[in-house]
Amino acid sequence: MSLCVVGSVALDTVKTPFGEVNEALGGSATFFSTAASFFTEVQLVAVVGDDFPPEHLAFLKSRGVHLDGLQQVPGRTFRWRGEYGYPLNEAKTLDTQLNVFAAFRPALPAAYRDAEFVFLANIDPALQSDVLRQMNRPKFVACDTMNFWIAGKRTALVRTLAQVDLVVINDGEARQLAEEANLVRAAARILSWGPKILVVKRGEYGALMFNGKTIFAAPAYPLENVFDPTGAGDSFAGGMMGYLSTQQGAVTDAMLRRAVIYGSVMASYNVEAFSLDRMRSLTEEAITARYRDFQALMAFDPLA
Amino acid sequence: MSLCVVGSVALDTVKTPFGEVNEALGGSATFFSTAASFFTEVQLVAVVGDDFPPEHLAFLKSRGVHLDGLQQVPGRTFRWRGEYGYPLNEAKTLDTQLNVFAAFRPALPAAYRDAEFVFLANIDPALQSDVLRQMNRPKFVACDTMNFWIAGKRTALVRTLAQVDLVVINDGEARQLAEEANLVRAAARILSWGPKILVVKRGEYGALMFNGKTIFAAPAYPLENVFDPTGAGDSFAGGMMGYLSTQQGAVTDAMLRRAVIYGSVMASYNVEAFSLDRMRSLTEEAITARYRDFQALMAFDPLA
């Protein structure tokens, strides 16, 4: 089934303890689309400047990502510069140049309006709501957000949350959003505002999924080499939503649990190299193999 | 089968965001023994002063803990004073009075020397080795340690590690001990020194178990009310070793995985109240119920 993502396409300059990369392909919609592209075709909505390197467009096309919704406008592409130390969990932002992204107004091509699965990546919550107004009753909507919007646009954000099925945010954001230090109670509060499901991403510690009745806990895949965490969260969401969009019928808890594992698989691969480099050589066999690795990682005998 | 623990018995004064408690029963051997007592009889080796409240001895006896190895000597009992803020993971030590514990020399009663399972709680690694010299070929030995010994008694500690089957430490200690930020590589280095198994405790994020071939990841049980984390690590070890000591034959990976879950169950209950208070009313039914909760928490469909 069809999957649409609205978010950023950016050029990232990243330094980690293991190396650095200059103006590499990045952005929430890029990581999401690329991860999801291993499961389905993705309709991308974003904006880039006239300086955007054509080879990045070619890469996204090669992954089957539809670019009719990617506006290319005069000006410079969104640029982000960040650094990771130890622990690798937290990025230190050194510079953010929104450039053409500052005036981004998502406009969905007619062909995208019937998408059944939608991911609203981390953009202004007012724009997230605006995207939903352009859609024809999508089957399943997920969104991300960040501390900047939680602090500065709380009312608009809570309005967006009321319209989505799934919220995918990190643990610090969940605590800040709910104004509650305990994650179980923070989750209950966020779910009380409307979304059916909350997935809390915890970086190297994995993810927790709450639906108001049960909790699912997935570890992160223990990696010997975490090279660059940039895009891990969006790759996670891409794997999750990409997998869900291949499933028929109502979205069940069992489907969502499998989706969390596929999200964890995609995030674990993405951090193995800078930018999207690991995705360039990734195979379906490798995805399946790591899903099985998660089975082995989490297996123990049930009681009789 | 028989289980012996050597460690501390202390009086803890603890402040958390939810309250405080003054000179409550604490100490690594106490938390360990009490958690393990739900699985087996425990032989305790420790020291207390002549000020130690008799009701604490009565409590340990009521849990079936053997106290022949508990020396009571003139002087004051070991006292620890600590505080937890948010996040609750990290204790801030305000005061440590070793008192009679400073001169502690473990002396195993003859009846303990044939114990098949041994836990060397966090004490001077030279004393840990000394305990092993007093034993008659135990079947399975586990140990804990802390940053103080890693920094100050590294050579003695590495000598102890070479003699144990299982090391149970937290993630910061594992990184410090291995001098390696990446946990997977830190685990490989620690295992190269002799122990067969390493369990890394990560507080609210659960535990990872490494055996050089496979990894097992268990989440912590997501709790709405974490009241006091003191003793969580020793309760974890107590649940793990208590369960293992009930099993026949060689210790297998499947047994160890079940043991990690039982350890997680005991730790999750222990943090629900100050000191050992939750353990006082805990039942076997509640332990079984939470083991099943872990099954539900970690379940997802395997690939065909």
What do the pLDDT scores of chain A average to? 96
Q: What is the helix tally of chain A?
A: 11
- Please identify the oligomeric state: homodimer
Name the pair of protein chains with the most residues at their interface, and give those residue counts.
A-B, 41 and 40 residues
Largest sheet of chain A: 9 strands, mixed
Describe this structure in words.
The structure is a homodimer of 304-residue chains. Chain A is α/β, with parallel strands linked by helices. Chain A has a single domain (3-298), classed as Ribokinase (UDP-N-acetylmuramoyl-L-alanine:D-glutamate ligase, 3-Layer(aba) Sandwich). Helices cover 36% and strands 25% of the residues of chain A. The first copy, chain A, has helices at residues 28-36, 54-62, 125-134, 147-152, 154-161, 171-178, 183-191, 232-244, 253-270, 277-280, 284-298; strands at 3-6, 10-16, 19-26, 42-49, 65-73, 79-84, 91-97, 117-120, 140-143, 166-170, 197-201, 207-210, 215-218. In chain A, a hairpin with a 2-residue loop joins β2 (10-16) and β3 (19-26). The A-B interface holds A 86-87, 181-185, 202, 204-206, 208, 214-219, 222-226, 254, 257-258, 260-261, 288, 291-292, 294-303 and B 86-87, 181-185, 202, 204-206, 208, 214-219, 222-226, 254, 257-258, 260-261, 288, 291-292, 295-303.
